[in-house]
Every structure is written in C-alpha cells, then in structure tokens.
Automatic annotation (TrEMBL):
Entry protein name: Anaerobic ribonucleoside-triphosphate reductase activating protein
Residues in Radical SAM core domain copies: 15-224
Top-level taxon: Bacteria
Cofactor(s) essential for the protein: [4Fe-4S] cluster
CDD domains linked to this entry: Radical_SAM
InterPro entries per record: Aldolase_TIM (IPR013785), NrdG2 (IPR012840), Radical_SAM_PqqE_MftC-like (IPR050377), rSAM (IPR007197), rSAM_sf (IPR058240)
Keyword set, alphabetical order: Iron, Iron-sulfur, Metal-binding, S-adenosyl-L-methionine
Keyword Ribonucleoprotein found: no
Amino acid sequence: MPTPIYNITPFTLLDYPGRTACILWFAGCNMRCVYCYNPDIVLGKGRLSIAEALTFLRSRQGLLQGVVLSGGECTLHPTIFPLLETVKEYGFDVKIDTNGSRPRVLEELMTRQLVDYVALDFKALEHRFHAVTKSGLFSEFVESLSLLNRSDVSFEVRTTVHSDLIGLADLQEMVKFLQHVDYRGRYYIQHYVNGVPVLGGLGRSEKNERLSTLSTDQIQIVIRE
Ligand code: SF4
C-alpha cells in the first residue's frame, strides 16, 4: 500500500488563515530549495497511507475546520484526488501549500472544487530560480499563478527571503512582476531563520527592514516572522 504521507500535525491555528486545522505532510519534492526547512520530508519516504490519514480525519470531524496539505510537494501525489474527495465529504475546508510546479494538477483540483485556499510559493524570478530551487520549473510556477489569478479560489503568494539569494532590488523586481501579471492583494514575506538545519549550505541571512517599504497600491507586503 502506498504511504505518501510523512507525518501529521494534529492541530494548528497558524497554517490555515481563519481556520482550526491539521496538516498532512507529503513526502518528496521536485525542488531542492537551498533554504528548505524540511529536508527530512523532502528526502525521506512517506510512512502513512491515505487510509490511515482518513482514519485520523474522521476522528477530527466536528473538531477541526480545515485540512492543510503540505510537504514536500503534495501535488506530486495522484492519491490526493481520492483523499480530497473524501475530505470534502467529511466537510473540511482544504488548503494546499504548493511550489506551483504542477499547474495541471492545480487546475484539476480547482475544477473539481477540491481546494478552498492555496498558498503559492514565489521562489524567485527566472534568472535566480535555479540558484534558489535547483530546478527549472519557473514557467510552471508562472502558469500556476496565472491559473489562480483567473480563478475564484482564495490564494496567497509568499516568498522566503535569505539575504544572499533575494536582496531589496530582487524583491522590488518580484513585486513589479506580480503587478505585471495583475496580482492584487497581500504578498507574504518570510525571513529565513538562521540556525535551523536546511537542505543547502547557507550562511547567515541579514534581515532587511526596508522590504516592507516595497508595498504598492496593488500589492501589500506583509512580513511573517
Ligand atoms: S522549500 Fe523547496 S524543497 Fe522544500 S518543500 Fe518547499 S519547494 Fe520543496
């Protein structure tokens, strides 16, 4: 029996805006972001089956409002479709965290009304995308962003900033890019946390307090600590 899920966080107030939720952590990823905080999940194997996750979720019906699919990259796992069919029957709202690399999967999730909220990582612009993610999946990210922009599914765009990878000028270009593709709303910035084990060998990141000054009429930068 396939075991795509690495672990379950049984309760969170922080990961699904406005909802009490749990998190299903999916093993494996098609990127290798140098600042990734979840090397065990990205490089490790899953340990729980969909059936085991559903048993847990059934026990939380009426106690939690939402289910977050995170990882790793949950859209790599075809079993999220039967999983989410049942999760919706159970009455949960669904959020997915994604790096945007599987636009066709995202499109199908939205068409089948299996997702209520999407957190989309904006890793970097094209010229820095490989340095940050060790992948060539920028155009897939752009397609995912475009799909979300055209949909009525709630979503957020977010970027992790390490000062060696994304400086003030880079972020300014990223804001311009979002404006260019007509994204409107909040743009969440998370500073890299020094001292946490990550995938790549990164030095200390210096916080730049000026990042929040890059907000525009169209895009409000929100720093997440
Ligand atoms: S930070 Fe990068 S490598 Fe880590 S799970 Fe997200 S997309 Fe994958």
